[in-house]
Every structure is written in structure tokens, then in C-alpha cells.
Amino acid sequence: MDDIKCAVIGLRGFPGVQGGVEKHCEALYPLMKGFRFTVFRRKPYIPQGAAKDWMGIRFIDFPSTRLKGFEALFHTFISAIRAIALRPDIVHIHNIGPAIFAPLIRMAGIKVVTTYHSANYEHSKWGPIGRSILRFGERMALGFSNHIIFVNRAKYEAQSANVKARSSLIPNGVNTAITSASTSYLESLGLKPGEYYLGVGRLTPEKGFEHLVEAVQDNPDVGKLVIAGGSDHDHEYAERLKALDRKGKVIFTGNLQGEPLRQLYTHARAFVLSSVTEGFPLVLLEAMSYHLPVLVSRIEATEQIDFIPQESFFTVASPQSLSAAMTALEKRMAPGCRIDYPLDGYEWQSVADRTAKLFRTLTRPE
Q1: Average pLDDT of the segment spanning 53-72
Q2: pLDDT by residue (tens digit) across 6-17?
Q3: Which one of 58, 111, 245, 351 has the fewest beta carbons within 10 angstroms of its own beta carbon?
Q4: What is the tens place of the pLDDT at every residue in 251-273?
Q5: Facing residues of 114 across strands?
Q6: Is the pLDDT of residue 23 over 90?
Q7: How far apart (Å, rounded) are the C-alpha atoms in residues 337 and 271?
């Protein structure tokens, strides 16, 4: 049987590009055997001279502006036109904004699968026009995709019977953690194992990092906080986060990959997810794979993970609630304590197998 040809649009790119969708794709596609993937990447995020193929995946890099609200639409449009010319069996669209072009691809007689990662219009960074465009993209995704993959159970369950009939719930996955015995990166930051809390993610308002920074300022039980992540667009927000660190307790590392990030996960006191909205938080699964104690904001995306202990939740967007949760963790758990989470069913290979089965079903001759 010939390989199934699949074009992928709606993401910045990979490998090594910051973002949950980007990590999702980087983990997923190499595990899907019997497919030929062509992934459209955005040049501003790709290092100059980067390889045009990786683990059997072909990349096509198109220019894109970094203007907020226009970048994804512009890049997805030119990618969709090129994808149609390639005549793949499936175009896999990531998230609702890029799904605006689902009808165009369907008109060309190509099957469309959209992965609904998150309701981006809930993010505070978007104004009325941006939210309207994203809601329109959501309607196009739900109305014109041959199949929709939801990573968030609540979003899936909220759909009509007609949409559910063309949908699947396939959460994000996680790889087995590769812990690090080294502390060289920690030492470069002036840190020791077990003395810092860790937050990971892009510096954007929906991640709620301002509440995390405020929570540690006057808490005598918390020594240091490390936030590993960079800012793509909103540099004003990043500067505001730094200004909130009145006591000099926070270390901002910028975007990290590989060994430095492994060291931070391995040796953290605990992990904090402070998001005010999420689709399905990959970084939380990663922290759990390192067996870290976790503290998480009580939002729709975290409540669907039913093995998170109730004492790990704090009130969303409340520095006071988060600070109290940190103090309670210090009293409840000895330094160096690790937790075994039941992550069966969240393995990336399982996610890849379910996605591959879906794609094969869609491309089966009728």
C-alpha cells in the first residue's frame, strides 16, 4: 500500500520551535508510519540554514510577517494554496484560526482534518476584530472539516451531535522523561536542586505568569522561581513580568530546549501551571513525567485530568490562592518528594496510533 500523503498547516514549525502546537507536531508525526508529511513552516521562526527534512518529514518554509493577528492568516493562506497544488490525500490544519481556509481546501477535493487545540478567542491579547476572526475560523473548522480532533474533553462534549459524529477526542501525549544527573545549567543560574519552583511556557497573558510572579514576592516559603519561556510578540508583557519581580526572586531563562530544560525539570522543587486558559497543557504532562509535585490553576483544561490531587489546585488568576497553595505544599511534602502519576493512555505512541487510524479511515476508498 502506498504511503498516505499529508500536508500540515497552521503552525510555526519544528523541531525546536517554542509553542504547544509545535511540540505536539514534533512529537506526533515521526511516530506515524506509512505517511509522507509535508509541513509548512514560518521562516521567521526557523534558524537560517535549517534542514528541509527531518526524520522523514519534508519542510516547506514560506516567509511570514510577525504582525500579531495577521501572521498566521497570511502564512496559512499561501500554505493552503501550495498544499492544494501538491494534491495530498489529507490537509491537517492545526487550530481554529488557520481553519478559515478549510472550505477552500475542501473545494479543491482534498480531505481536511482540523485539530482543535484551544479556543484562541478566549485569550486576552485579542481585540474584538481578532476574536471575531477566530470565532469565524471555529465555525469553518466545525462546519467544513471532514473530521475534527479535540484535545480538550470539555470542548468536545460541548459540541452538537452533528459535530461529534465527525469528531474524536485525542488528548496530547507525553514521552518518558529523560532525567539529568547534571546540574551545570542550574549552577550557571546560581541555583541548587530543590530550591526553586518552575513554570514553563511562552510569555503570553493566557499563561498567567503575572499571577505566579506576584505569588512568590512576599511568600517566605518560596526561595526562587524559574520561568522558562520566551516572548514571540508581546515584549511589553515580558517587561511587565520582570517589573513585577520586586524582590528579585524570579529568573527568566528565555526559550529553552534539550539539556538545560531537562535539568530544570529534574531538579525543581515543584511545577506550577498558572494559565488562565488552555487547550490541553503539554508542559503539565511533561512535569508529571518527571514526577514533580504540581500546582495548577483550576480551569477547564486541568480539571479534565482526573488524577490531579485536589490539594494541587488553586483559584485561577489569584496570586493569593497560589501563594497559599505553595505554603501548603511546603508543609505537606518534604523536599525532594516525587510523585508517580498514572500517565498510561497519554503516551505519544498511543496518540500517533489513534491519529494514524483516523487518517487511514478517511482515505479508504469508498
Answers
A1: 84
A2: 999 999 999 999
A3: 58
A4: 999 999 999 999 999 999 999 99
A5: 93, 148
A6: yes
A7: 12
Grid cell at residue 231: 516572548
Q: Which three cell numbers stand for residue 71?
A: 501572521
211 vs 244: CA distance, rounded Å: 10
- Give CA separation, 33 vs 57, 59, 170, 200, 362, in Å: 11, 17, 18, 31, 16
Radius of gyration for the alpha carbons in the chain, expressed in angstroms and rounded: 21
Residue 233 has pLDDT above 90, yes or no: no
Look up residue 71 and give its amino acid.
Answer: E
- Tell me the C-alpha distance between 85 and 182, whole Å: 49
Q: Per residue, what are the HEC states of 125-139?
A: CCCHHHHHHHHHHHH
Residues β-bridged to residue 271: 198, 294
- Cell 491519529 locates to 355
pTM: 0.92
Nearest to 292 by CA among 351, 333, 347: 333
Determine the residue type at 267: H
C-alpha 323/C-alpha 304 separation (Å) is: 23
Collapsing DSSP to helix, strand or coil, 304 comes out as coil
DSSP bridge pairs for 297: 314
124-163 burial, b if ≥16 CB within 10 A, otherwise e? Answer: eebeeebeebbeebbebbbebbbbbbbbbbebbeebeeeb
Nine cell digits for residue 34: 506509512
DSSP per-residue string spanning 34-69: TEEEEEEEEGGGS-TT--SEETTEEEEEE-----TT
Residue 128: predicted pLDDT:
85
Distance CA 271, CA 228 (A): 11
- Given a cut of 80, is residue 123 above it in pLDDT? no
Element counts in the chain: helices (H) and strands (E): 14, 14
Distant-in-sequence, close-in-space partners of 82: CB < 8 Å, separation ≥ 6? 40, 60, 62
The predicted-structure confidence for 280-303, as pLDDT tens digits, reads as follows 999 999 999 999 999 999 999 999
Task: Report how far apart, in Å, the C-alpha atoms of 94 and of each of 9, 196, 307 are.
Answer: 6, 34, 28
